[in-house]
Write a structure and sequence with these properties.
This protein has 769 residues and is α/β, with parallel strands linked by helices. Strand 29 and strand 30 form a beta hairpin. The two termini are 47 Å apart. Bound molecules: beta-D-glucopyranose. The site of beta-D-glucopyranose has 9 residues, from strand 4.
Length: 769
């Protein structure tokens, strides 16, 4: 059987456990490459080892010492689950996403790749017993509006990866949320390019602070899971530059990822991994990116077109229809269809990434090292505590320390907190209390519905030792309502699971949890709902309950984080990085596009998501650059909760809002005062409307911790590219002369103060710096 890109979604990481049984054809490569003539090595050695030179210069020098066989070794990676143990394969592979044999004679390290959107992944426990610290979902990190939290999470995940001998992390997911039901929305950083780009950049910088490589992914416009390998994302290029590409541009500027992972989908009719516009014109030409482009797993469709468009490395090569960058590339080189200079460019890019990340000079250990999981769990807990959003509070929270009789209902809150599914799945420290295999669907091969071992019930009992705290599972609504009635307070834990490879079909809480909440709230007016979700959910019961927390997928210590927030040991400070619509009908599209096509195709081929013969289908991103809250504002729609929204147990006041010019561009300043009785963090947000009108967009934000009564002065840089328009003709950004209206508030649409910024016409370079 030959595995095609199309059916990776169903087989996916998949077949892991049974990997040896799957006879995936493997073209053995020459390993290790024969040493080149001594003289060539000796001549250039001093140059590439010179740490004072920049990464690209070192890469160029090293390249000159390589044989063609060695070069060809660097432009492809194995998918270990399919190749491990096969004759002729390296013997030091461990099951994970990718492996590229190094070139020891030149000091080129073997690349060992692991997924790591939310910590070092170990999907379907492909490495038995190998646990890692599970961060909360990236949406939670985004909700913190705190680059330090993003950096700390990346740094922690990178440290664990290194200690586990990995040196390439498939992290840095920064696709903007264009649809509220996206299966991977939880893995990304929300709907705003400035917020998402900055936090992705911080997290990537954190990963790479360990001298290992991080990707930024999935480049670009990989905005839905339905038919993700055949969906043709259509969007005007200028609008793309001003939205999704701006997020990537900022993430690359801030995080300097050594690699960019191109996406599964097509973009304006070309496969993302063979889009010359994306991989060469934008990435190399506009942004001067020097690292390497690796494909997503199963996203390559050609040899010559892909290589000539700017793809440097075919990832997990056995997952594509062909090992395009193996023998076919060699043949194309021989025929001159791919010039030798192009191979050199590809290899130089890979080497540049290896030098720039510090990996060349700081090789990863060859055996696993000890990890301080307790310290790392603290990192995950802080991220959860900063990211949990208080959506409603009619005086119920924080829970009085004297609360006597509390019942927890549903969500398996007795044993843990929910995790999102897919390649980001971490096998978390402490084991997995619940793991439910999927009955079918595109994710069935590589995802299971999994809870992390962090029990809200136990955490609450630890904080309230003299209270009587019980749990009922909620499967019997009447019994749950009765338990609620007999208690002083009911805490309902509602869950919505999402996974890579599948979009959810609507925003309702599944399994009639709405009915459960309504019935419980009818019996107990003091009802609090804690929602563990991968994005927005509808809340038909909102006005019947006393308080609501959006806890996202809160990670390794989610139970403790939720308990601390409920009790006020931590004051909630998260703000929504994504709009919660009032109904599905408010979204730019009424449902995921292509469902019928994918369903019919799957039925015909019996091969999982779009695994059959269906050609591509168009997803028209008609909202253009008006993503998320900008779409809702443009349509005049009032969502359930707007972007940026989040309550606190204290109140903040703003004053002295001003805008000035600095050498680096416009900056806003303001005073923030904690006017309440408890300490807390404020998240002031500044939105701008351009002289030509249009929708207001986030251009600056801050986060500041304040003691009761304390005032602090903040100075926040304005993201100038968010004030500019992309010029397709000249390939740069243009600031129009005129008045820019800057408003200060705590959510999109909130205007507590405003200022006018007058700007002269100006041109900005294509690349964010
Ligand atoms: C995902 C990537 C991931 C890769 C390797 C793909 O299915 O889209 O995000 O890094 O698999 O596991």
């Amino acid at each position: 059987m030959r595995l095609s890109a199309m059916n990776f979604a169903s087989i996916g990481l998949a077949a892991l456990a049974m990997s040896t049984a799957i006879a995936a054809p493997v073209t053995a490569r020459t390993l290790p490459a024969k040493p080149a003539a001594k003289s060539a090595t000796a001549k250039s050695a001093a140059i590439w080892q010179d740490r004072k030179l920049d990464a690209q210069a070192r890469a160029t020098a090293l390249l000159a010492a390589m044989t063609q066989a060695e070069k060809l070794q660097l432009v492809r990676t194995y998918f270990p689950p399919f190749t491990m143990g096969k004759p002729g394969m390296p013997t030091d592979m461990i099951p994970s996403a990718g492996y590229m044999p190094g070139v020891p004679r030149l000091g080129i390290p073997t690349l060992r790749e692991s997924d790591a959107s939310l910590g070092v992944a170990n999907q379907v426990e492909q490495r038995k017993g190998d646990v890692a610290t599970a961060l909360p979902s990236s949406l939670a990190t985004a909700a913190s509006f705190d680059p330090d939290v993003a950096y700390a999470g990346g740094r922690m995940a990178g440290a664990e990866a290194r200690a586990k001998t990995f040196n390439v992390l498939l992290a840095g997911g920064v696709n903007l949320t264009r649809d509220p039901w996206g299966g991977r929305d939880f893995e990304y950083l929300g709907e705003d390019p400035v917020l998402a780009g900055n936090l992705a950049g911080a997290s990537i910088a954190g990963v790479q602070s360990n001298h290992i490589i991080s990707t930024v992914k999935h480049f670009a416009l990989n905005a839905q899971e339905t038919g993700r390998m055949i969906a043709d994302s259509h969007l005007d290029w200028s609008a793309l530059h001003e939205s999704d590409l701006l997020a990537f541009n900022i993430a690359i500027a801030r995080g300097k990822p050594a690699s960019v992972m191109c996406a599964y989908n097509l973009v304006n009719t070309d496969h993302a991994c063979e889009s010359r516009e994306l991989l060469t014109t934008v990435l190399r030409g506009d942004w001067h990116y020097q690292g390497f482009v690796m494909s997503d797993w199963g996203a390559v469709h050609s040899t010559v077109k892909a290589a000539m468009s700017g793809l440097d490395q075919q990832s997990g090569e056995e997952l594509d229809k062909e090992i395009y960058f193996g023998e076919p590339l060699k043949a194309a080189l021989a025929k001159g269809e791919v010039p030798a200079a192009q191979l050199d460019t590809m290899v130089r890019n890979v080497l540049t990434g290896i030098f720039a990340s510090g990996l060349y000079d700081n090789p990863t250990p060859v055996t696993a090292q000890a990890i301080d999981y307790t310290a790392h769990a603290d990192v995950a807990q802080k991220a959860a505590e900063e990211g949990i959003v208080l959506l409603k509070n009619a005086g119920l929270l924080p829970l009085a320390a004297g609360a006597k009789k509390i019942v927890l209902i549903g969500g398996h809150a007795d044993v843990g907190v929910l995790s999102g599914g897919g390649s980001s799945q971490v096998r978390s420290v402490g084991g997995v209390p619940i793991e439910i295999p999927l009955k079918g669907g595109p994710a069935a091969g590589f995802a299971r519905t999994t809870w992390h071992n962090s029990s809200p019930l136990q955490a609450l009992r630890a904080l309230l030792p003299s209270a009587q705290i019980t749990y009922v599972d909620g499967s019997d609504k009447a019994a749950a309502a009765q338990a609620a009635q007999q208690a002083d307070l009911a805490l309902v834990f509602a869950t919505q699971w999402r996974t890579e490879a599948e979009d959810i079909l609507d925003l309702k809480l599944p399994s009639d949890q709405d009915g459960l909440i309504t019935q419980v709230a009818g019996a107990q007016p003091r009802t609090v709902v804690v929602v563990e979700s991968g994005g927005p959910v509808l809340m038909p019961w909102l006005d019947k309950v006393g308080a609501v927390l959006a806890a996202w997928y809160p990670g390794q210590r989610g139970g403790e984080a939720i308990a601390n927030i409920l009790l006020g040991k931590v004051n909630p400070s998260g703000h929504l990085p994504i709009t919660f619509p009032a109904s599905e009908a408010q979204a730019p599209r009424p449902a995921p596009i292509g469902l019928e096509i994918v369903k019919a195709d799957d039925a015909a081929s019996n091969a999982g998501s779009a695994g059959g013969q269906a050609k591509s289908f168009v997803v028209d991103y008609r909202e253009g650059a008006d993503v998320g809250y900008r779409w809702y504002a443009k349509q005049g729609l009032k969502p359930l909760f707007p972007f940026g929204y989040g309550l606190s147990y204290t109140q903040f006041g703003f004053g002295g809002f001003a805008v000035t010019q600095s050498a680096k561009g416009p900056v806003v300043s303001l005073d923030v005062t904690n006017k309440g009785q408890v300490a807390g963090a404020a998240v002031p947000q500044v939105y701008a409307t351009l002289p030509g009108g249009g929708t207001a967009r986030l251009v600056a934000y801050g986060r500041v911790q304040l003691a009761p009564g304390e005032t602090r002065h903040l100075t926040l840089p304005v993201e100038i590219h968010a004030l500019a328009h992309w010029q397709a003709g000249t390939r740069n950004w243009r600031i129009e002369a005129g008045d820019y209206r800057l408003t200060l508030g705590t959510q999109a649409g909130d205007e507590q103060a405003s200022q006018t910024l007058h700007l002269a016409q100006a041109t900005l370079p294509a690349a964010v710096r």
